[in-house]
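dumping this here so i dont lose it
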């Protein structure tokens, strides 16, 4: 659905370079262990700045995570080229790294922030009461395909697919917005910008709207 784009920061460089020569078994010689990858991804997620989007119904606090995972892995491997085994190219290292890192990336991206609901809203037959929920991305392969809303207030998490359209402006990192589609009834979407896509999730309808 989306074209590949360049990622602004070498976010996954920690999965190779920051292991400081502590390499694991399996795959290419010198690849980091799953435990090292998981720990470093969590540390780098923590370092990302928090962004806030707010309106009269929602307040979203989230991490602007990079989306083009293949490009991130490739550039991370290139940055660590001096630590790679002789004869191993950054492209080879990245090809090996990404399958190892993907389960931990998916787990980390499944909780990128919070959704504060200020008024009762409904998505289809599901109702969100006022309160704070966890917000994450659903990934398929290397691309987001929707959002997940979960937390103690929900018996089951909400998994809401994206409906995407091409964007003229590329976004290598995730950007979220709230879009009001119907001012009279207050219908709104959560909008995600990533790579060359503008995608909507929703629609949410305030239950006190007339």
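and the seq i came up w/
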């Amino acid at each position: 659905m989306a074209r590949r784009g360049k990622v602004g920061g070498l976010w996954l460089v920690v999965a190779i370079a920051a292991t400081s020569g502590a390499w694991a078994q399996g795959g290419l010689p010198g690849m980091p262990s799953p435990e090292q990858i998981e720990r470093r991804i969590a540390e780098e997620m923590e370092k990302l700045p928090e962004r806030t989007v707010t309106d009269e119904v929602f307040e979203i606090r989230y991490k602007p995570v990079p989306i083009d995972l293949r490009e991130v892995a490739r550039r991370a491997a290139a940055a660590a080229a001096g630590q790679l085994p002789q004869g191993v190219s950054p492209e080879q290292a990245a090809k090996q790294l990404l399958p190892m890192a993907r389960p931990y990336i998916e787990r980390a991206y499944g909780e990128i922030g919070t959704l504060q609901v200020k008024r009762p809203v409904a998505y289809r037959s599901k109702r969100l009461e006022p309160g704070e929920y966890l917000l994450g991305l659903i990934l398929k392969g290397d691309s987001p395909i929707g959002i997940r809303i979960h937390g103690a207030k929900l018996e089951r998490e909400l998994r809401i697919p994206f409906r995407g359209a091409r964007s003229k402006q590329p976004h290598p990192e995730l950007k979220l917005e709230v879009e009001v589609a119907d001012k009279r009834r207050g219908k709104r979407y959560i909008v995600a910008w990533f790579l060359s896509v503008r995608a909507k999730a929703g629609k949410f309808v305030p239950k006190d709207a007339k």
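The CA atoms of residues 7 and 72 lie 6 Å apart.
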